[in-house]
Design a protein that fits this description.
Largest sheet: 5 strands, mixed
Number of domains: 6
Shape: elongated
Strand content: 15-25%
Number of strands: 27
Number of helices: 29
Strand order of the largest sheet: 21-20-19-22-23
Length: 941
């Protein structure tokens, strides 16, 4: 038959409209026939009965709500055999046409989507659009919704998953739609693209036919005017058609919103989404004049080029995508698109079937693959997808991820080019970008996820874990091989994965489900202490702590920064901390159970830490820490991650090594808990941990951690004596600084207090001073009486307080009041370990107890000393200054005995800025001047 080209201005032959309707219905009926071929007999019954069940209200039929529920399709008259099938559900049912006010309140029923096409598979659901009278009141619509819900439940009992969507034609045609309109729909701004899908896939089942059928493609641009003429001149009758709108123009914003939705779905199920993403790319490339597939479908009907295979909704989709990619010369993308199409159809062509048993879908797919010139080998590869393992999946993943990332960049650039980035789109693009980043982006320490919906199961029955070396032993790595390999032949096999770090490889195997509870793993190693028992313990711990599949990540989480949610610390993976004992099968008995300073040999048994974390974006990261500072380095990394959020991660510590595993895991767990609790209570603080003779300090400033290692007690004291910008409270690990004075002193420090701790040791006393910023000053002095020991210090501090109060407070009104002085005595005396601290109070200052010795340091560093208010300057005495002052002091004493001389006042204010005028600086300078004076005094003896 010839092409039909109606001209509304010259008049339309009603016979042409009748022929057009017959052509559409011929294709429609073929699609129903093909749909039934893919459905079971019970599903076919649902498809046949659904129009009748909606058309009538009968108390014994499925879906009945009430006799007033909207019902009745225009021009619908069920066939007698269909009524008989309905009577199989309700014997008393007698069909009577709807009468009364609810007559013909339903406009149309359509089946849309893949049903009746090559893309429909047995597991697919069916989406129905039920168009109703726009004048229905909300209560009637709610009752109709209830009936549809009940019918969905009935269909499910028949083995059919259906979704019935209620459509107000007027509202929809105007571009307003609420909620989901397909089970695949995001429910946002995708009106025209959804309408395009509807027109090219919809199967009409009952009621009014679309008026869109009767508008030629070349008249689409004046669709509303054309439809008005059709109705006004009664070329078509209003009660016979339903108007859902046109496709003359698709707004640019829809490409972005629809693409984002498909890209979101494609992260977990890429094959189906990539087809739709490509279609959006095709349409966007033609903007603003988009030749939709639905318009091509309508044009074929008008031209009477009706080939049922070529008018198949999915075949038309394929042809359109193939044409676009071929013209662009993108052959790799074309092949990927064909694989997506083939896998969507789910017909395995390599499974032998006789011609008599072949479905129409299989026959059509064979025809297509012959056109693609696919070999038997290629078909076998795709048909074996449910048996794909790691190697096949990794190759496919590269192509799929590349395509998904290309689509994201395309959408981002499209949004900018067409200037359609609204606030909502910008937010959605940002969320989508982060979701893609979390799923696919490579970064340091991140475990790669290789199976985004590519293969159903990657688990291997048997694996071999091999510690590998290059021939010259310059390279060391670990590799996981499928099956069983030996030490002699592993080089001749291809591993599933090779990585430098052992734990990173094991986490990769778990995260990608390459290893499950049934996998048998053997270990080949030459230098590692890893054994199969430890390996199985590690995998069991991974399954317990990071169970698969992972939870869904919310949009709220993606809008925030990533932070750790769950942490697993594995200690000494593949490392025996006491190898000599293992070699001789000896067990050591010791009272020293601290595994960081173990036994009389003072060994550190925490040699490596593998830090495995999953964050709120579902990213899995692995870091390895080794060496003497492994525990502190790991703690710093943990706390720095924790600093980004107020959420405290769940931290588990495990150890499976051969010696002291339980004690090691418990000790590390205690340290981690203690450090975390301290960091939570004091975001700016310091934590001290002793490992053997080393002192390791974790310093927190506003939650950000840094670490310092001191190789000896002397270097620790030097570190503690540095100037500090602020007073940082201390947390001392329970096993650290055992019996040492610092263990008791440091935790007592408080801001704006200067604390003096002294301990008598025979003829000497050990002085520790913690200043207002928690800096330490230590000094050993001769001891006669407590008053003689403390009075010089108290007099000096009193002078400093007076000077600060008299100058700095006045000049800087916001400066805090002078610090408080506190004195403590450490017990017991002597050289035994410190056991307790007691407050002390020195006697009141006497008027003539000491001569005043005042020191003034100029901005140039020149020293001026005042002895009982007599001035002595370097300008006058040069390098004899200290001798002159010492002689003057001795001359004023009643006794010639050379007991120590003390500086009673010191001014550094012109030499240092105010923020550096910290008490510890004065104490250090005081000690230096006193040393010079007392050395000079010895010359007079």
């Amino acid at each position: 038959m010839a092409e039909i080209r109606p001209n509304i201005d010259e008049g339309i032959d009603r016979k042409d409209l009748t022929r057009l309707q017959q052509r559409f219905l011929m294709v429609n009926n073929k699609r129903i026939e093909r749909a039934n071929c893919t459905l079971s007999s019970r599903q076919q019954l649902v498809l046949r009965l659904l129009p009748l069940l909606l058309h009538t209200n009968h108390p014994l039929l499925p879906g009945y709500v009430s006799g007033t529920t909207p019902a009745g399709f225009t021009t619908y008259e069920p066939k007698p055999e269909l009524v008989q099938e309905a009577q199989g559900l309700a014997r008393s049912f007698v069909y009577r046409p709807a009468r009364g006010y609810n007559q013909n309140q339903l406009y149309s029923l359509f089946l849309m989507g893949s049903s009746g096409s090559i893309g429909y598979v047995e597991q697919s659901d069916m989406d129905f659009w039920l168009c109703y009278d726009p004048t229905l009141d909300p209560q009637s619509v709610a009752e109709l919704r209830r009936k549809c819900d009940d019918l969905q439940v009935w269909a499910a009992s028949m083995g059919a998953e259906i979704h019935i969507f209620l459509i107000d034609p007027q509202q929809f045609a105007s571009g307003e739609k609420e909620g989901q309109l397909t089970s695949d729909d995001c429910g946002t701004t995708q009106h025209y693209l959804l309408l395009d899908e509807f027109y090219r896939t919809a199967v009409w089942l009952a009621g009014r036919t679309p008026i869109w059928w009767y508008v030629p493609v070349y008249e689409e641009h004046r669709y509303a005017e054309y439809c008005k003429i059709l109705l006004d001149k009664r070329f078509v009758r209003e009660h016979e058609v339903v108007d859902l709108g046109h496709l003359a123009r698709i707004p640019a914003g829809e490409f972005v919103s629809a693409g984002m939705w498909q890209l979101y779905k494609g992260i977990e199920a890429p094959y189906k989404s990539l087809l739709k993403l490509l279609l959006i790319e095709v349409y966007a490339s033609e903007y603003p004049t988009v030749d939709c597939i639905s318009l091509q479908f309508k044009q074929a009907i008008y031209q009477d080029t009706i080939n049922f295979d070529e008018l198949d909704a999915y075949v038309m989709l394929y042809r359109r995508l193939a044409k676009y990619l071929t013209e662009r010369g993108e052959n790799e993308r074309l092949e990927l698109m064909r694989r997506c199409f083939y896998l969507k159809v789910e017909k395995k062509l390599t499974q032998g079937l006789t011609h008599r048993n072949k479905s129409w879908q299989r026959t059509l797919l064979e025809k297509l693959t012959q056109q693609w010139q696919w070999s038997e080998k290629e078909l076998q590869h795709l048909d074996g997808r449910d048996q794909w393992k790691t190697m096949e999946v990794q190759v496919e993943r590269r192509l799929l991820v590349s395509e998904l990332m290309y689509s994201y960049r395309f959408l981002s650039q499209l949004a900018q080019r067409l200037q359609v980035v609204s606030a909502i789109n910008a937010r959605d693009l940002a969320i989508l970008g982060r979701r893609l980043y979390a799923a696919f982006e490579r970064k340091a320490d991140k475990v790669e996820f290789i199976n985004p919906g590519i293969a159903p199961n990657l688990a291997e029955d048997t694996l071999t874990l091999v510690e590998c070396f290059a021939d010259d032993r310059s390279e060391h790595y670990w590799a996981l091989y499928p099956g069983s390999v030996t030490q002699q032949n592993w080089r001749y096999h291809t591993p599933l994965k090779r990585m430098r770090e052992l734990m990173a490889l094991l986490v990769w195997a778990h995260f990608n489900a390459v290893v499950d509870a049934g996998t048998r793993i053997s270990v080949l190693t030459s230098t590692s202490d890893l054994r199969e028992r430890e390996l199985y313990g590690i995998f069991q711990s991974l399954r317990q702590n990071f169970a698969l599949p992972l939870r869904k990540v919310s949009e709220t989480e993606l809008l925030s920064q990533s932070y750790p949610v769950r942490v697993l610390l594995l200690v000494n993976v593949g490392v025996d901390p006491l190898p000599l004992l293992s070699q001789h099968n000896v067990h050591i008995a010791t009272e020293q159970t601290n595994v960081l300073d173990f036994s009389g040999r003072r060994e550190n048994l925490v040699l490596t830490l593998d830090h495995i974390v999953i964050n709120n974006w579902n990213e899995m990261l692995v870091r390895r820490f080794s060496g003497e500072s492994a525990l502190l380095d790991c703690l710093a990394a943990l706390l720095n991650e924790y600093a980004k959020t107020t959420v405290i991660p769940d931290v588990q510590v495990e150890c499976f090594c051969r010696n002291r595993a339980r004690a090691i895991s418990q000790r590390v767990s205690d340290v981690v808990i203690q450090a975390f609790m301290h960091a939570r209570n004091y975001p700016s603080s310091r934590y001290l941990l002793q490992v053997q003779d080393y002192f390791q300090i974790l310093e927190l400033k506003d939650g950000v951690a840094s670490q310092h290692t001191m190789p000896s007690l002397a270097s620790l004291e030097t570190y503690l004596g540095r100037n500090q910008a602020e007073c940082l409270p201390w947390q001392i690990d329970e096993y650290s600084l055992q019996g040492h004075a610092l263990k008791y002193i440091l935790p007592l420090a408080q801001p704006h207090k200067v604390q003096v701790y002294y301990r008598i040791q025979g003829e000497e006393a050990e002085i520790h001073v913690l200043d207002e910023r928690n800096s330490l000053f230590k000094q050993r002095l001769a001891f006669t009486t407590e008053q003689a020991l403390l009075m010089p210090l108290q007099r000096f501090f009193t002078a400093l307080q007076y000077r600060r109060f008299a100058t700095e407070v006045i000049e800087q009104p916001s400066f805090e009041l002078p610090y408080q002085l506190e004195y403590y005595r450490l017990w017991p005396d002597g050289t035994y370990a410190v056991q307790r601290v007691e407050p002390a109070q020195p006697a009141l200052l006497g008027q003539d107890t000491f001569y005043s010795v005042q020191a003034i340091i100029s901005s140039a560093g020149a020293v001026t000393l005042y002895c009982n208010h007599q001035e002595f300057t370097e300008l006058e005495y040069g390098d004899k200054l200290y001798e002159k002052v010492a002689g003057t002091i001795l001359a004023m004493r009643r006794s010639a005995e050379p007991y120590p001389c003390y500086i009673t006042d010191l001014d550094l204010s012109r030499r240092l800025p105010a923020e550096e005028l910290q008490t510890v600086r004065f104490l250090k300078k005081k000690a230096e001047l006193e040393r010079r004076l007392n050395t000079a005094m010895q010359a007079f003896v």
